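Table S2 (text version). Query chain:
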Amino acid sequence: MESDDDIPVPDAAPAGGVPRGLVQRDEGVFLDLSLAPAQLRIAVDQLFQSGQLLAGLDYGLFLLTLFHAPAPRAAPKGDALLRIAARVAPFPPQRRALYKQVKVRGDSAEFYFEALPADADGQVPARREFDELVADLWCKGVHYGIDGAAVRAMLASGKAERITVARVLPPQPGRDAQLVEVSQGIHRDDAPRERSDGRLDLLSFKNRFPQVKKHARLLRLLPGAPGLPGYDLAGTALPPPAPLELDLAAVAGTGTAVEHFSDGDFLVATQDGYVNVDEHGKMSIENKIVSREGVSSRTTGNLKLRAAYEEYGEVQEQRQLDGSDITIHGDVYGHLHSHGGLIWLQRNLVGGTAFNEHGDVRVEGVASGSVLQALSGEVHVKRAESCVIAGTRVVIDSASNCEIIADEVVIELAEGCAVAARTIRIGSAGPRKQVEMLLFPLVPDLSALEQRIAESLAKAAQHQQLRHKRQQEIDAIAQLPEVRNYLTLAGQLRRGELQLQPAQQLQYDKLAARIAPVLKEVARLRVEVKQSEILHAQMLALVEQLRQERQATAGQSRCTLGLVDGETVVRTLVVPPGPAKVYDRPPKEIKALLRSATPATQAVFADNTGSLDWTYQPPP
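Corresponding structure-token output:
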């Protein structure tokens, strides 16, 4: 606030007038708002010290203008006046004597409203007035804080009582800076998760591992706000305590950054990931969750994640883990679903599921009674027993009693399995106990290509027939007598073997005029002959191209058996046409396809010894 020492003192009031800053008119007394509040306070002080008062004072507006109004920033245009009282009135000493009982004690001022004594003539003076009390207290140093409502009520009651008439206004503290959470999901919440239909999923926790998206706002810095100054009884400003400030960067850890927006400063995630707050309060966003408690109904419940997950414990039966890039160091008995990355099982998969939409599945131990699927990736297993396995490429060291389907299958030792793939390479194959060894090289359905070849050959034959027909028409026209005579004469004239007399020339021109429409028709037929020759050649070239494509497509189907040890059957299985992947099927459909005899197949090999190196050759 502006210091009083910097404010010029208003001129003393002229005789019979009011100090500069106060304006008295018929309609009342006004404050000149072109002056600063400190200047107005000096003017009021001069008025009260001169033995005058402001009658009909609006005390609330009076305080607001003298102490709380901002200093004018520029000279206002025209008059800037504020009516503050009805008139300036004298405050004679005999009236001032009625307020001798005012006592100022530290932060308050008290007054004893005793009964008014009678004068020498026995007359009781008029009652005390609020405006007089204001002027008297001002001259005694109480410039601020009169409780107008309490004083007016006391004056109206006429009771004799001591009350506090003025109090100090303490400063109002501001608001300390604070960090406000703006993301709903940054706290662990083990309550049951609510499903989309409103029911609770008792097998899943609401938010076991808090997860946020890139660019998500995590914390907002709510800056400190300054408090409001108070005033003591003398009207001196009491500054509020300074608010506590915070540095948002002090809590920014890995994966976060401080960013400024139009609505404030925020701690923002710079990557997708999971929230981690250390013991010092620093917040980080990691793209990987590391858990050592295992996945069970007691620890985590079912999990639905969107980042890398590493688990050192086991995954219990029937537990579902939905995430990306999953690494499990313990045994897995539950169900894993990854949206990408690698499912890497360091130990065993027993009675569970490992399903990856866009990535590989790798099992370092044994997979038993389980389902392993990689829709756009490879499946690598050390040993597989009684499993359903599907993927773009499947590589197994040892497989027994499994149903396997892929684009390519590579197995060192296979026993009692049913395998279907475009390319099959097995080191040793044979039955297991009572379960036979079935191999189904997937051969393409060439019917569409063959249909196109047949259609192209038919079109080529049509063009050839049209060419012959048009040529015959041309030959027939050329044998007409007039046409033959004209063509003979035209040839002799062109070669210079014949010279025509004028009469002969006239006869020749008449013949040419009669023959002209016929020659035009011959020219049109010759154009059709040429077009037919070109289209015939194009159809034959397309047939050759389709035949090469057919041969190349067929050559993708291969089956190689290094050693046949026991009854082994190899039969081709035609892949139905369409964009769907042959291995993108539910496990039950895969088992039904490979173990039933319903698909139409063609025998390739059936023996209990020997080897096989077979490449599909389509029929000519």
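Notes on Table S2: DSSP finds nine helices and 38 strands in the chain. Residues 1-16, 200-207 have pLDDT under 50 and may be disordered.
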